[in-house]
Design goal:
Helix content: 25-40%
Number of helices: 11
Strand order of the largest sheet: 1-2-3-4
Length: 284
């Protein structure tokens, strides 16, 4: 049971990481290639930050890794109990904890690692009690860039996708959004007037204007329909399914959430990996 499980027992020891100085483009490629939602940032071998998909999507025009990353991240000792890690992740609404020993990064513990451990615990409590309280559905033909903004405003990393018959036909996640995004370069213009608003000799129609052209690079989320990239093969579970049973489905299918349905296959809500971690605390 969780009381006997240490962080070192379940953490990932082979850690993908970014380094300073670094760029957004490098992180963008790293997250895509490694299929992870975030990585530690090191400088001279020491942990200085964390950078995630959310950092990139929320700051699409920022190119410097030092300005994108979250500084001074929470860390955990490899000898700490898993329950301590779960409480830290839930209390701070984060998905990963760098594991540090003697100022050295020795691993990383993510929500997925804890869910994989829950899959082996034989927790039979019904998952219905752990459903997310709010779910924001998205229509199949919603442009992806609009869907990404909706998810950002709802502070949700995943959303069910419904069709015109109001049936859930897919799932869209921030992982899908970042995988479909590209780095776009463009040239923009800024007009700078030589006259001030207080200058009585200056009129709007006659004001001397100097145009400055500058290059802009940003993370671009395309406006393709959500249905083009959503996950269509849904892994579902019943309201009365056991916690460990659903955790095993998440582990095997490498997913962060499962649609919960009733006997008629009607959508009831989303079971997110974050919420399923609460079962560990309840089993204390």
């Amino acid at each position: 049971m969780p009381k006997n499980i240490k962080v070192s027992d379940i953490m990932k020891k082979d850690v993908a990481y970014a380094t300073l100085p670094g760029s957004r483009d490098e992180v963008h490629t790293l997250l895509k290639d490694k299929k992870v939602s975030g990585v530690p940032v090191l400088k001279d071998g020491k942990l200085v930050g964390i950078v995630s998909r959310a950092n990139l999507l929320n700051n699409p025009e920022e190119e410097q890794l030092a300005l994108l990353m979250t500084r001074n991240p929470l860390v955990i000792d490899p000898d700490a109990n898993m329950i301590v890690a779960v409480k830290m992740l839930l209390a701070n609404n984060i998905r990963r904890l760098p594991v540090v020993k003697d100022d050295k990064l020795v691993g990383i513990l993510s929500v997925a690692d804890i869910v994989a451990s829950i899959a082996e615990m034989d927790i039979t409590d019904h998952v219905g009690q752990y459903l997310s309280p709010t779910v924001v559905p998205i229509w199949t033909d919603t442009p992806l860039n609009v869907a990404a903004r909706i998810m950002e405003l709802a502070k949700s990393k995943a959303a069910p996708v419904i069709d015109s018959n109001l049936e859930v036909v897919g799932i869209i996640t921030d992982r899908d959004v970042i995988s479909a995004s590209v780095i776009e370069d463009s040239v923009e213009m800024s007009d700078m007037s030589n006259g001030s608003d207080d200058d009585e000799w200056t009129w709007e129609s006659m004001r001397d204007t100097m145009s400055i052209y500058y290059s802009v690079s940003r993370v671009k989320v395309p406006d393709i329909p959500v249905k083009n990239i959503m996950v269509k093969e849904l892994v579902k579970a019943a309201y009365i399914s056991g916690v460990s049973e659903c955790a095993l489905k998440m582990k095997r299918n490498k997913i962060d959430q499962i649609p919960i349905v009733n006997a008629n296959q009607r959508f009831l809500g989303l079971l997110r990996d974050r919420n399923i971690m609460k079962a560990v605390i309840d089993s204390e």
